[in-house]
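Worked example 2:
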Amino acid sequence: MKTFLFQGDSITDANRDDEKQGLSGLGCGYAFLLASEIENNHKDEIDFINRGESGDRITDVYARIKEDIINLKPDYMSILIGVNDVSHELTMKCGVSPKKFRMIYGMLIDEIREVLPDIKIVILEPFVLKGTATEKLWNDFDREVRILAEISKQVAEKYELDFIPLQNKFDKLTADGNTEYWSADGIHPTLAGHEVIKEELKKVVEKYIAECVFSEV
């Protein structure tokens, strides 16, 4: 049995419940959608765990590295982080600068790989849309999240990790101005938005599963 760990902020958290096991503890977002679909086709082959935390920045994920990553010993892990690093700075002056974001992201990957050298990690690109939570500071949100999105891509390239671009995908889907269908407030996806993330991540997870099956033949 392989283990897949979801890491990130409230987009990943999606109201998950630590007290519940299995699919019922994964929340109501892309983590649940993906796990329920994969388990349908690969029952007893892969176990899914969600440790996304609402409000987290990259520094918070790093602070949880032992308890919520290393101790769980996942074979695979996805990370979606970055929008709070910007929003916390714009609204509360406690965000994470691009320079520190890059440094901590690298430290996170280095330390995980030191203990779990065979782990496969996929980085999802942070994204932002215009909505009730972002429109007042839209230019700042748009500029700064895209900076962290590019850094996330560069971290993935440096460590030869899979990278899933999301901003351009959502930009195209909202080109008609109908952002509310895809995001409740410009930061948190609706069910339709979570479905988009799920579909993109599923491609990578299915690749991992196929590689695992092939290696065992």
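The chain is about 50% helix and 10% strand. The chain has one domain: 2-216.
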